[in-house]
């Protein structure tokens, strides 16, 4: 749905924790807000490949260890095993719940959510390129750039190693 004729009070680029917080605070203050998200789902790196997935993985492994070490459950050598695919499946479920929850925040607070990649084409104007190649132009009085961070990669660590992961 095109929004080209709308002048927003503020446009937030990015739906991670910073962008979400800014958008919600501005919307609750009565501002007409648009949020631009490059990816299909809201939440940013925190939700999709950093904090939440890593915590979901850690939680699954912790619960498995706790179960296997419990005298109550581990009788007669009946320890339970999970595959990496099982654990990843659980993490995917957590991510899906988080994106649905976060998406509902934008709807409930009447924030216009636009999917695409934003580029400034003037001091108050953005061009938004969608995945299908179409473009849309929108304008705003103020902008919040909340496009995320990058992981720190010290030179003395081999990040190509198959057992080292980062976002």
What is the structure about, briefly put?
By secondary structure, the chain is of the alpha/beta class.
What does this structure look like?
The protein has 167 residues and is α/β, with parallel strands linked by helices. The chain has one domain (7-145): FAD/NAD(P)-binding domain (3-Layer(bba) Sandwich). The protein is built from 4 helices and 6 strands, in the order βαβαααββββ. It has helices at 17-28, 44-48, 51-69, 84-108; strands at residues 7-13, 33-37, 112-115, 117-122, 125-129, 135-145. A 6-stranded mixed beta sheet has the order 3-2-1-6-5-4. A hairpin with a 2-residue loop joins strand 4 and strand 5. Helix 3 (51-69) packs across helix 4 (84-108). The mean pLDDT is 84.
Structural class by secondary-structure content: alpha/beta
Number of strands: 6
Please report which band the strand proportion falls in: under 5%, 5-15%, 15-25%, 25-35%, 35-45% or over 45%.
Answer: 15-25%
What is the helix content?
25-40%
Alpha-carbon distance between the two ends: 32 Å
CATH topological fold name: FAD/NAD(P)-binding domain
In one word, what is the shape? elongated
Order of helices and strands: EHEHHHEEEE
Across the major sheet, the strand order is: 3-2-1-6-5-4
What Rg, in angstroms, do the CA atoms define?
A: 21 Å
Mean pLDDT: 84
> In terms of per-residue confidence, which ranges show pLDDT below 50 for 5 or more consecutive residues?
none
The CATH superfamily turns out to be FAD/NAD(P)-binding domain
**Count of separate structural domains:** 1
CATH class: Alpha Beta
Main sheet overview: 6 strands, mixed
CATH architecture, by name, is: 3-Layer(bba) Sandwich
Q: Given the structure, what is the number of helices?
A: 4
């Amino acid at each position: 749905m095109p929004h080209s004729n709308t002048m927003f009070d503020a446009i937030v680029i990015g739906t991670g924790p910073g962008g979400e917080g800014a958008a919600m605070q501005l919307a609750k203050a009565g501002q007409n807000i648009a949020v631009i998200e490059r990816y299909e789902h809201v939440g940013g790196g925190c939700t999709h490949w950093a904090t939440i997935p890593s915590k979901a993985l850690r939680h699954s492994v912790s619960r498995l260890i706790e179960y296997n070490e419990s005298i109550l459950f581990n009788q007669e050598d009946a320890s339970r095993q999970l595959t990496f695919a099982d654990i990843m499946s659980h993490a995917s479920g957590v991510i899906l719940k988080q994106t649905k929850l976060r998406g509902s925040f934008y709807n409930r607070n009447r924030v216009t959510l636009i999917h695409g990649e934003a580029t400034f084409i003037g001091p108050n104007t953005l061009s938004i390129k969608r995945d299908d190649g179409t473009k849309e132009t929108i304008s705003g009085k103020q902008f919040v750039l909340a496009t995320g961070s990058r992981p720190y990669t010290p030179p003395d660590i081999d990040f190509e190693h198959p057992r080292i992961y980062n976002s």
